[in-house]
Design goal:
127 residues; mainly alpha; two-stranded antiparallel sheet; 6 helices; 5% strand
Length: 127
């Protein structure tokens, strides 16, 4: 816990400086309102983190999400848990590739600007 003006704050609940969510706001959710069981930001975040940690397909992304569920739940809503590999594939094939590309590159550029001393100690992905 971090103490800020005599209040304890969980560092995982602080808004990340380089949030994926901030850079994905322009990606339109292709799912119709009544079928939105999972939040698009949760889907994008899990996929990005899984690929960074070595997932190489939809099954790998689902496996990562299920293995890291408790950790992911600390900062994602996950109202209906981790989605299936088929749902990951369906959502990503229906996204606008230009919007996704633009938002991802925007996030990568911001993350690459992080200066020395701003990144915490390295840990195993999702640990």
């Amino acid at each position: 816990m971090i103490s800020i003006s005599s209040q304890s704050v969980n560092p995982l609940k602080l808004r990340p400086k380089f949030s994926i969510a901030e850079h994905s706001e322009t990606v339109e959710d292709p799912k119709i309102e009544r079928s939105r069981a999972h939040l698009l930001i949760d889907i994008l975040t899990i996929a990005i983190l899984a690929v960074i940690c070595g997932a190489d397909g939809w099954v790998g992304i689902e496996t990562y999400g299920k293995a890291k569920y408790k950790w992911l739940k600390m900062f994602l809503a996950l109202p209906n848990g981790i989605l299936s590999h088929d749902t990951f594939a369906r959502v990503f094939t229906s996204l606008n590739p230009e919007q996704l590309d633009k938002s991802f590159l925007s996030w990568v550029r911001e993350v690459s600007r992080v200066g020395e001393g701003e990144v915490g100690e390295r840990k195993k992905c999702g640990s």
